[in-house]
């Protein structure tokens, strides 16, 4: 029987408490589907800084290496905010994990669940049309990782620089991911760039156009990033899959997330070519509500769903997790962050229990 | 008597028709305040491509040089969309104009006018708190203009690159502008960067912090650009002045603009150290409504207001223009783009007439 090994990185803030609910789900799946799931926990983020002096200790990296997937809670908090940003929990843990495991494909779905449109910051006329966007972000290239950066002096004038750079093959491989995902959805792909200013964007657009020839069923269009920012707010229902570079994806995917009004429901996956991946809720460590048993575990649970889908190729189990979550939401079970009139307020652990029961 | 020379660049699409209303306003001001205003028209954008083969002809540049300010309509349209993006009307006209005249300070106010909150894409609970944001964008530095860019091959792998770069003095001068503007407003400045990833952002943040010592009355904070994108949508009322680099400002200022729901009301100014400036409505050339006499001339008229304020230092006249516009809006005169129930629908030219009358 195949053994599925998951490296569990609860992290800081609400990370550990939502992870407890994640364990519940994993246990139920293990029983119901007679699976052999092995989980091992490792320190990451602030707690790792406290215990090992660094946000991503060697032991954690080794543990992840010996697993088939990483389940990540959340990192960061006020305690570590005064560290130089390069050492901080978020940056110090996430960027090296992404790079080390070659997790070039970041998938961030952002959908509006029917029944909670009222939580969206967008007005009713817009959200009543619904939306379901999948942001595909290149995650290990571009200006994030290029080594040509620094701070220097010329004629005693100080300056700093960073280099945005993309190899054509980096654009090709993320474009293929986006086109394939579009095929399984509404076959609509919008590629974001700033081709009227950036040379990398010109290559980006050219390359995406070339890759598109292999996917004649997908309707491809291009938007400048500034215009995309506006269109997403005005007409989110016009989007299906969105393809972005690392930097633009950082901004655009957060915009997609916020307009749903429910960060606590949004999972994410960061994958490499081999299907190894890091799965992480979109919401962050929310230190202000830590330990109160009010955090929403659904984003983490849906991240487990993505993990089963993309790293374990257990599509059916993934579908089951997702439909159970939708059903539980439909029945009105809600943590505080997504509570509305006539809903059934549940705590973090109760939400985990309800979802486990339905599974 | 001082002569005020304005280079008028109507451009394409609705540019010429809103500019006609601009002339009306200039004529009234000229009469009412016994001013000596001289306007001269020059081609720019698509029409300049058609007539001179280039979006910014030498003659236009010379004309601008011989003036005290540039009043810009709008450029671009489907006719020129298939040109390579470097030659297109927007990019080919705006970027060289900004660089040539050292227009490093881009001011983009975005406010919600009371009475038209319903036009905002944001929900009522958010817009009912109102907002009034001024985006200050560095306009001639950063990744937009750095010459270290290109497309190359290494080991037969194709790649492209661009260089984000800021001299400390470039950050200092735009920061001073932002702090000074904050002093004249709610004394609240948010500086946007990505200091957890970019070396230029680390210098940006450091430099803004240093400049802030000279403005102890201004409350400064920093936000990462991804987070800023979210906060602007959730809590636009928390913002007063926003300071951005060229690339981040391109995105953030468009986000600020769209959440007002009324692009047709938003002016902008791009200034150099000497107070010379280019003034331009935010909305673009809107080729689809060209020639229909329905475009909103208010953004252009408020741009004239900014021109009087920043290039002519005629603050009182600028105040008058602004308060007349607010009054006209308050009285319910509306072009189609901002029409609501019980309003008085007026055409482009009627709106110009009404505002002239009130002046
Ligand atoms: C923490 C930070 C480095 C990271 C990023 O910029 O990628 C985060 O914002 C994200 O989007 O996962
Ligand atoms: C046309 C384009 C080059 C320009 C920019 O990116 O600055 C435009 O988007 C703007 O914001 O004025």
UniProtKB/TrEMBL annotation, chains A, B:
- The answer to whether keyword Cell inner membrane applies is no
Q: Name one GO molecular function term.
A: magnesium ion binding
Cross-referenced Gene3D superfamilies? Isopropylmalate Dehydrogenase
Record-annotated residues binding substrate?
Answer: 98, 108, 137, 226
- According to its UniProt record, in which pathway does this protein act? Amino-acid biosynthesis; L-leucine biosynthesis; L-leucine from 3-methyl-2-oxobutanoate: step 3/4
User: What remark does the entry make about the cofactor?
Assistant: Binds 1 Mg(2+) or Mn(2+) ion per subunit.
Q: Which UniProt keywords apply?
A: Amino-acid biosynthesis, Branched-chain amino acid biosynthesis, Cytoplasm, Leucine biosynthesis, Magnesium, Manganese, Metal-binding, NAD, Oxidoreductase
Where is the protein found, in the record's own terms? Answer: Cytoplasm
One Pfam assignment: Iso_dh
Where the protein is mainly located, per its record?
cytoplasm
InterPro entries linked to this entry: IsoCit/isopropylmalate_DH_CS (IPR019818), IsoPropMal-DH-like_dom (IPR024084), Isopropylmalate_DH (IPR004429)
User: What are the site positions for Important for catalysis?
Assistant: 144, 194
| Residue span, Isopropylmalate dehydrogenase-like domain | 5-355
Cofactor dependence is on: Mn(2+); Mg(2+)
Naming one, the record's GO cellular component terms include: cytosol
Q: What range does the record give for the signal peptide?
A: none
So what does this thing catalyse? (2R,3S)-3-isopropylmalate + NAD(+) = 4-methyl-2-oxopentanoate + CO2 + NADH
Q: What is its EC number?
A: 1.1.1.85
Which residues does the record give as NAD(+) binding sites?
77-90, 284-296
Q: What does this protein do?
A: Catalyzes the oxidation of 3-carboxy-2-hydroxy-4-methylpentanoate (3-isopropylmalate) to 3-carboxy-4-methyl-2-oxopentanoate. The product decarboxylates to 4-methyl-2 oxopentanoate.
Q: Which family does it belong to?
A: Belongs to the isocitrate and isopropylmalate dehydrogenases family. LeuB type 1 subfamily.
- Quaternary assembly: Homodimer.
Name it.
3-isopropylmalate dehydrogenase
Gene responsible for this protein: leuB
């Amino acid at each position: 029987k195949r053994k599925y090994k998951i490296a569990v990185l609860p992290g800081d803030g609400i990370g550990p408490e939502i992870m407890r609910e994640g364990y519940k789900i994993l246990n139920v799946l293990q029983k119901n589907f007679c699976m052999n799931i092995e989980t091992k926990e490792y320190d990451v983020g602030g707690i790792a800084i406290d215990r090992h002096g660094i946000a991503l200790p060697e032991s954690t990296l080794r543990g992840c290496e010996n697993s088939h997937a990483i389940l990540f809670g959340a990192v960061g908090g006020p305690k570590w905010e005064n560290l130089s940003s390069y050492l901080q929990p978020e940056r110090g843990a996430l960027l090296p994990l992404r790079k080390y495991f070659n997790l070039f494909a970041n998938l961030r779905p952002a959908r509006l669940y029917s029944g909670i449109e009222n939580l969206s910051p967008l007005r009713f006329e817009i959200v009543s049309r619904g939306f379901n966007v999948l942001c595909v972000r290149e995650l290990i290239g571009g200006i994030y990782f290029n080594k040509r950066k620094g701070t220097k002096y010329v004629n005693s004038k100080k300056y700093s620089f960073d280099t945005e750079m993309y190899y054509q093959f980096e654009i090709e491989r993320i474009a293929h991911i986006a086109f394939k995902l579009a095929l399984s959805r509404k076959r609509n792909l919008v590629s974001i760039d700033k081709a009227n200013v950036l040379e990398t964007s010109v290559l980006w657009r050219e390359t995406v156009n070339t890759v598109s020839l292999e996917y004649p069923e997908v309707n491809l269009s291009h938007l400048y990033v500034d215009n995309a920012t506006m269109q997403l707010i005005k007409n989110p229902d016009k989007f299906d899959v969105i393809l972005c570079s690392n930097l633009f994806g950082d901004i655009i995917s957060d915009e997609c997330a916020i307009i749903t009004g429910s960060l606590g429901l949004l999972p994410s996956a960061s994958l490499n070519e081999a299907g190894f991946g890091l799965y992480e809720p979109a919401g962050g460590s929310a230190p202000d509500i830590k330990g109160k048993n009010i955090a929403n575990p659904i984003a983490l649970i849906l991240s487990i769903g993505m993990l089963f889908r993309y790293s374990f190729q257990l599509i059916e189990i993934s579908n089951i997790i997702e439909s159970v979550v939708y059903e539980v939401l439909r029945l009105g079970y809600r943590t505080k962050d997504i509570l509305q009139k006539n809903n059934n307020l549940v705590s973090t652990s109760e939400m985990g229990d309800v979802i486990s029961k339905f599974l």
